[in-house]
């Protein structure tokens, strides 16, 4: 019999022609209607999270998290993307039945009003398990060094999210890595208390140091250490 890779089906993502986030596969998810499915999750630049049956490709649910930023040269010099919403790959807590995604949301679609939010989405029906958590204004205050305040309009959230001991780790790069506002950020959210628990900024006396990771998430050590790669 023939060997190799064969296309089984296609899954439609109609709200944006380009995807940045990787798909996620979760086995044996029991939906709110009582059915059990192996599931494929895909997040889009249009800020929609889609769930599909992994066997047939049939849609199971979809959830839009808010209006994305419309493509603009102020954050995308070559106008590569139509929308800027969920850039990074979400992370799933299978035990809790929750997916966490970081969405860039703007009330009018403009870049200056865009802010980053962490979303907690239930796997069984796509509903929000928590209200959207706004990350705007997070503070990093190292001893004897300049305090830094997180400004969404300066950041791009490309590296994948990661779970560590009840916390979601959210890494950030920068819109313009040659600007004096360029910095890498890592924000940890306590999912039980649903609040920012810790922050780290890569450059407090200079600039640059975005955390991009080629789209991958931070690496974790057995002792809880967090490893990231900075660039620019």
Write the layout of secondary structure elements.
Elements: E1 24-30, E2 36-43, E3 48-53, E4 59-64, E5 69-70, E6 83-84, E7 91-93, E8 98-105, E9 115-122, E10 133-134, E11 139-140, E12 148-149, E13 155-156, E14 162-164, E15 167-174, E16 185-190, E17 195-201, E18 210-211, E19 219-220, E20 226-227, E21 230-231
Antiparallel strand pairs: 1-2, 2-3, 3-4, 5-6, 7-8, 8-9, 9-10, 11-12, 13-15, 14-15, 15-16, 16-17, 18-21, 19-20
Salient structural properties:
single chain, 232 residues, mainly beta, five-stranded antiparallel sheet, globular
How would you describe what is shown here?
- The protein is mostly beta strands.
- Helices cover about 0% and strands about 40% of the residues.
- It has strands at about 25-30, 35-45, 50-55, 60-65, 70, 85, 90-95, 100-105, 115-120, 135, 140, 150, 155, 160-165, 165-175, 185-190, 195-200, 210, 220, 225, 230.
- Strands 13, 14, 15, 16 and 17 form a five-stranded antiparallel β-sheet that branches. A four-stranded antiparallel β-sheet has the order 1-2-3-4, with no helix packed on it. Strands 7-8-9-10 form a four-stranded antiparallel β-sheet, with no helix packed on it.
- The radius of gyration is 18 Å and the shape is globular.
């Amino acid at each position: 019999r023939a060997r190799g890779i064969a296309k089984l089906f296609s899954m439609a993502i109609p709200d944006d022609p380009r995807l940045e986030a990787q798909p996620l596969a979760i086995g044996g998810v029991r939906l709110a209607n009582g059915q059990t499915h192996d599931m494929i999750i895909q997040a889009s630049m249009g800020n929609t999270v889609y769930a599909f049956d992994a066997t047939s490709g049939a849609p199971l649910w979809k959830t839009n998290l808010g209006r994305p930023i419309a493509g603009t040269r102020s954050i995308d010099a070559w106008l590569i993307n139509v929308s800027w919403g969920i850039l990074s790959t979400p992370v799933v807590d299978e035990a809790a039945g929750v997916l966490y995604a970081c969405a860039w949301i703007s009330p009018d679609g403009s870049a200056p009003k865009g802010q980053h939010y962490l979303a907690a989405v239930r796997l069984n029906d796509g509903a929000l398990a928590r209200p959207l958590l706004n990350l705007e204004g997070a503070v990093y205050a190292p001893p004897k060094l300049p305090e830094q305040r997180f400004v969404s309009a300066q950041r791009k959230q490309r590296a994948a999210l990661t779970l560590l001991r009840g916390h979601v780790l959210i890494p950030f790069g920068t819109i313009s890595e040659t600007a004096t506002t360029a910095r890498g950020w890592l924000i940890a959210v306590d999912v039980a208390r649903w609040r920012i628990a810790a922050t780290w900024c890569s450059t407090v006396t200079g600039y640059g140091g975005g955390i991009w990771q080629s789209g991958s998430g931070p690496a974790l050590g057995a002792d809880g250490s967090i490893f990231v790669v900075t660039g620019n």
